[in-house]
Amino acid sequence: MADTDAHPITVAIERRIDPTRTAEATSWMQAGTDLATAFPGFLGSGWVRAGEDSDLWYMLYRFRDITTLEEWESSTQRQWWLDSGRPFAREERSERRTGIEGWFDAPHGSILEAATVTEAGTQPIQQPVPAAPPRWKQAVTIWVGFFPTNLAASWLLGFVPGFAEIPLVLRVLATTLMLTPVMTYAVLPWVTRMLQPWLQRPRRSRKATS
Would you say residue 189 lies in a domain? Predict the structure, then answer.
């Protein structure tokens, strides 16, 4: 199995919903979420609407890896669920995110289903799905995390007796083996949280800057 197959995968699906059947669509979306939770590798699922008057709805789900994702997507349970929604739901677009782009997803919880309880019952909070930041911002963020981490590691390894005499290829191999999990599980999540307002800041139009 390839290395990329072991990464968690987030799937975002855009659907158009018949506005006259909103109540049915709400129950249908929740049923899909409930079905997915029973599958191995399931990491989270939810849905949001683009706006109160919009017929665009977004559903997201996340699985441990490509194998568990495909088990869900090819299951008879999901096929039954999809068939039951065809009269009022039409899929427009589907996107998978994994690897480096996964570090720049919106914060956990902000694109999953949220709800508020009123006298009329539980109502979904409607909010747009944030887009991933531009690639140049992703590159800057990775550099901001990688430079001090690599600098600190190089300084500390300088105190290891005989490390400087090890062949360059082996030194780089040892360094990357040590730093990759540190970057993935500690540095990048922290840096992206700190830079989130900048990463998610909307682009200013040329008219606004002129």
Answer: yes
Tell me how long the chain is: 210
Q: What is the pLDDT of residue 116?
A: 36
Judgement on whether residues 77 and 45 belong to the same structural domain of the protein: yes
- Is residue 191 domain-shared with residue 100, that is, in the same domain? no
Q: Quickly tell me which residue has 């109502």 as its tokens.
A: 123
Show Cβ contacts of residue 94 under 8 Å, excluding neighbours closer than 6 positions. 11, 12, 13, 14
Same domain for 146 and 46: no
Q: Give the list of residues 6+ apart from residue 112 with CB closer than 8 angstroms, or none.
A: 44, 45, 46, 60
Helix/strand/coil for 3: helix
Instruction: Note whether residue 209 is domain-resident.
Output: no
Q: 193 lies in which domain range?
A: 135-199
List the alpha helices (DSSP H) in the chain. 22-36, 66-73, 76-85, 135-157, 168-182, 188-194, 196-199, 206-209
CA-based radius of gyration for the chain: 22
Residue whose entry in the numeric block shows the structure tokens 């989130």: 196
- Count the neighbouring beta carbons within 10 Å of the beta carbon of residue 207: 6
Residues 41 and 120 in one domain: yes
Mean pLDDT by 10 residues, the chain (210 residues): 61 89 90 90 82 83 88 93 92 74 47 38 44 78 90 90 89 87 80 80 58
